[in-house]
Amino acid sequence: MMQGRKDFTDKVVTRFRLSERVTAHNLYRQLAELVDWTFLYEETRALYSHTGQPSLDPVVFFKLVLVGRLENLVSDRRLVEHRALRLDILYFLGYEVDEELPWHSTVSRTRQLFPTSVFEHLFDHVFAQCVAQGLVAGHTQAVDSAPVKANASLEAVLEKGQPGTSGPFLTTVESATTAPLVTAPAHQLRNLAAHHARQAARSSAPGAQHPKARLLSNKTHYSPTDPDARISMKPGKARALNYLCSLAVDTAQGIISHVQADFADSRDSLHLPRLLTGLQQRLQSQQLRMHELLADAGYAKGTNYALLEAQQVTAWIPVFGRYKAGIDGFTYRAQTDDYTCAAGKVLSFRKYDTTADGTGLKIYWATCSDCQQCPLKAACVPGAKRKQLTRTLYDAPYRRAWQRQQSRRGQRMRRVRQGTVEPVFGNLLHHYGLRRMNVRGLAGAHKTMVVTAVAYNLKKLLKYRPNRQASLALALPRPLLAADRRCRQQSRRKQPHSGLPT
Prior knowledge:
Blueprint: H1 18-21, H2 27-34, H3 39-44, H4 58-70, H5 76-83, H6 87-93, H7 104-113, H8 116-132, E1 140-149, E2 158-159, H9 186-203, E3 221-222, E4 230-232, E5 240-250, E6 256-263, H10 272-285, E7 292-294, H11 302-310, E8 314-316, E9 331-333, E10 338-340, E11 346-354, E12 360-365, H12 368-372, H13 377-380, E13 388-392, H14 395-406, H15 408-431, H16 442-463, H17 482-494
Parallel strand pairs: 1-7, 7-8
Antiparallel strand pairs: 1-5, 2-3, 4-5, 5-6, 9-10, 10-11, 11-12, 12-13
Helix pairs in contact: 2-6, 4-16, 5-7, 8-16, 11-14
């Protein structure tokens, strides 16, 4: 057998059909047939004029950004370069091989043109298909959040300025007219200044191993590139300018039921009411009702517990470790709303109060005469006239959540949450291009997160195959009973004997 050699001739192909080069089981061919994209024309019709040059097709734009999520591409430039090399992507977009593709700047401008509502309608459209196919139950939802790196550098942050003031954190920058003003409360600024003073003294002390670090805070600094980005850090990682991605995932098949972008400098518990509102509206539009909500301790807050109970939703949210369901040495009576100490004295409810951040409190205390004559005063309240207890205003919802957490089902629901929403976040961050924002602003971040969730749900919808159990019915003979056997034996005895050997 002689050696073969393949020579390449760059010739013009006279007959070529793109649909024949894309197989039937290709991902993008199935996506083109799965979703009816024509509703996007009606959604975006009011955004365009009746005259002028034709713009980028809205359906092509949304298909383009979905391709970027499915191919794990963050940059629009790389997306444009990548799609020109793939026949299946060209077929999905509706472009011929020799047809000129839109530029990356056109994709960016179109993203800014479309409002958030158009992206939300696309998400609702795909979510409705998931409900129709039986992938969404709606009964139990798992909630979590994760930081996503913003399209801005932490090294370029500037100090906030307030005209007419001075101080270590109120210095006016060169662009004081456009710089955000310091809006943090005075007590937070005092605490921050004291903390920074301790850090500076520690770094400048003799024998310090580390150089003096730059002390940054969202209360005193901002990013001129992306003012909506916030300085935050994840345990075990360095600080960075981030956005917060909040998700709700249905526990039936892992379909994303809600997604939103939030500021990364606040606690997760503050974002739950808005997330819950959007989630409930989407489920109600599909005639679904949520009965249970799973979340981690970051969402533990008295107002959240009360809100979920008011909506008749069971909250499987662990309370903070510092919360104590009871107070050592004191017994609570719910009927009279008071505490009884070890000496038998009653601490009645006296008044409501609030903390510096607005948290509601309930104050209980005993009378001065009871404490002054008590033999346990030296150990209980040695330097005060009376014993006082401070409890949260939502102590009853906290107590019920704590009891659910300690139950056996509470431990199982914790594992359900970990196995539902955490793998979804891992896929979005590592395989769907959500590791970093390619846009700026909270609205742009929200659009990117919504498109990423749409791409994830479409992939789940394509892979879903319902379990169909094949059943085969066989007609078996009825088992003989004892009476049937006796009847058959008697009938055989009555038959005449033929005399022939059997």
